Backbone:
């Protein structure tokens, strides 16, 4: 990691700021991902879940803005390779599942949960680093976002368990080329 003129006083603080910049990039890109997921979802419950989390994501961006302000830095997004890969995987499951199926909803839930788990790992780590750097106010803001990410993950699990997974288990194998694991469709 290269040294940047960020007002940081230690390598850990540089790393902390870089992680914040990556999460800022991730949250801003997640807005369009969630909009697409909402549009591609089949059930109203899942559509509502994605809409709600999109609203929360705007709040996450505002909190990150506040964190940067408290650090006396401008929010500067830096691409996050990890979440870009997970976002790409989400686009792939949309391309590889049939529109209007429970299978699509299952795939969307799993893709969304992968994002949530990555974000939970990052926000939990960032909150701990903020404490290590004696920045309790920042830790509190980051933990607020962490709790919302945990709640979103839990809600996605509930939606899956309340019937979508079961519905998908009863859908017949499609014969189209546009399905996950097309090599199994002969």
Residues:
């Amino acid at each position: 990691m290269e040294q940047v003129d960020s007002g940081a006083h230690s390598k850990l603080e540089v790393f902390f700021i870089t992680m914040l910049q990556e999460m800022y990039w991730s949250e801003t890109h997640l807005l369009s991902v969630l909009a697409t997921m909402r549009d591609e979802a089949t059930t109203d419950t899942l559509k509502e879940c994605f809409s709600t989390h999109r609203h929360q994501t705007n709040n996450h961006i505002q909190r990150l803005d506040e964190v940067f302000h408290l650090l006396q830095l401008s929010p500067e997004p830096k691409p996050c390779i990890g979440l870009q890969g997970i976002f790409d995987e989400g686009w792939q499951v949309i391309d590889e599942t049939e529109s209007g199926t429970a299978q699509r909803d299952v795939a969307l839930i799993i893709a969304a949960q992968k994002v949530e788990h990555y974000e939970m790992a990052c926000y939990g780590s960032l909150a701990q680093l903020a404490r290590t750097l004696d920045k309790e106010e920042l830790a509190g803001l980051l933990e607020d976002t962490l709790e919302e990410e945990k709640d979103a993950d839990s809600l996605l699990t509930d939606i899956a368990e309340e019937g979508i997974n079961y519905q998908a288990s009863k859908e017949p194998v499609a014969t189209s080329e546009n399905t996950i694991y097309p090599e199994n469709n002969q």
About this structure: The two ends are 49 Å apart (CA to CA). The chain has one domain: 11-170.
